[in-house]
Design brief:
single chain, 191 residues, Pnp Oxidase, Chain A, 3-stranded antiparallel beta sheet, 4 helices
Amino acid sequence: MKRSLGPATLALPSPVWVIGTYDSANAANLMTAAWAGIACSKPPAVAISLREATYTYANIVERKAFTVNVPSASQAQVADFLGIVSGRDVDKFADAGLTAVGSELVDAPLVAEFPLSLECRLLQTVKIGLHTLFVGEIVDVKAEEGVVRHGLPAMDLVSPLLFSAGEQSYYAVGDPLGKAFRLGRDLVRKP
């Protein structure tokens, strides 16, 4: 029997994404977000949920764009820093030792040092309560050459950072378990 834990944000795991935006003065800003995920395949889209109080929230509303930058597990300290200070008070790129790279496709910066970045154009916003869901259409994906295998980013090479909300802890990705859409084939009933 499963134990009831009540209503809570305990889905496991959450990705650790660093959201890149420009503010009204054209300053590049970053924010770590873990309330995030894939939203659609066609058009390719992601969703991030942000509180209105965040600096990034206003930037996305104004610029209608953002980037999703995926830090590797080795960059956990930097990703955590980006989530505990405000871009209203500090230059996060400078303080974290990161390089802002302007996107040619959307009005938002990429992080040069992170292995994977998605350039997103704002499609929709949905006010849910404390958070607003921003849905962004992925207009391009940029990946460091060293994390690409067979033309796609490889999980073991990117080594993305994961978050456990209940534990308030970061994790790294473990070993591969098998190929999707093949691993369960032996359980498919044959007529």
